[in-house]
Amino acid sequence: MSELTNSKTENWFASWFDTPYYHILYKERNYREAQLFMDNLTHYLNLPEKAKVLDLACGKGRHAIYLNKLGFDVLGVDLSENSIAEANKNANDSLHFEVHDMREPFEKKFDAIFNLFTSFGYFEHDEDHLKTLVAIKESLSDYGFAVIDFMNVNHVIANLVADEVKHVDGIDFHIQRYVADDHIVKEIEFTHEGESHHFIEKVRAFTLEDFQQLMNEAGIYLLDVFGDYKLKKFHKKDSERLIMIFK
């Protein structure tokens, strides 16, 4: 039995993201929308040709690959060794991947650092989230910009689907969602090839105000906030996303 119980949730992401089931469950994500977002983002930031871009928590590298096709020199990093091994199949002279903990800064500097699709807020302790923000700031070039694309927790909590079953590749994923201890929690249970599996996703329910407080502590300047992938204005109640541009 593959199980991630409450006693192990501090590093739930190190286990769940490294399994093939994570990628099966989320295989239907809208990548065309993601590409339009990156088109809009790179245009808004007016990134120069061959700008050095860091895709922080890149997974299997799909977005890093697209950014590279737009003409940028891209490094994709992730804690998941399996994901990086998969991503590395697409590496070239201007596209590289490596295993990296987002709490650690880089010696080299980047013109843009992207942390996309709610890849923040995984740590149990806020000091680790603060470390991550400081690491991002320290890894930016003098003229660089960073982007965190997070969920708008107000909208998510108001529209939370408590119970759901998703049928993907012959697997019935039973999903429960709830809010507990300032986290949005998703429990995922399923059976495959006679084995029962149970995983937990926990993301800190950071509001814009929470981010502003952390950014103040990190010495970060928040430049702009958007509420969707078309870069429309952020509305606390209705926006689906919380997209923050900072340096």
Strands, helices and their partners?
Elements: E1 2-3, H1 12-16, H2 20-25, H3 31-45, E2 52-56, H4 62-69, E3 73-78, H5 81-87, E4 95-99, E5 110-115, H6 126-138, E6 140-151, H7 153-158, E7 163-168, E8 171-180, E9 183-192, E10 195-204, H8 208-218, E11 222-226, E12 241-246
Parallel strand pairs: 1-10, 2-3, 2-5, 3-4, 5-6
Antiparallel strand pairs: 6-12, 7-8, 8-9, 9-10, 11-12
Helix pairs in contact: 6-8
Question: How does this model look, in words?
Answer:
It is a single chain. With 247 residues, the protein is an alpha/beta fold. Helices cover 29% and strands 34% of the residues. It has eight helices and twelve strands. The protein has a seven-stranded mixed beta sheet with strand order 4-3-2-5-6-12-11, sandwiched between helices. Strands 1-10-9-8-7 form a five-stranded mixed beta sheet. Strand 2 (52-56), helix 4 (62-69) and strand 3 (73-78) form a beta-alpha-beta unit. Helix 6 (126-138) packs across helix 8. The longest helix is centred in the N-terminal third of the chain and has 15 residues, at 31-45. It is globular and about 50 Å long. The chain starts with a strand and ends with a strand. Residues 1-10 have low confidence and may be disordered.
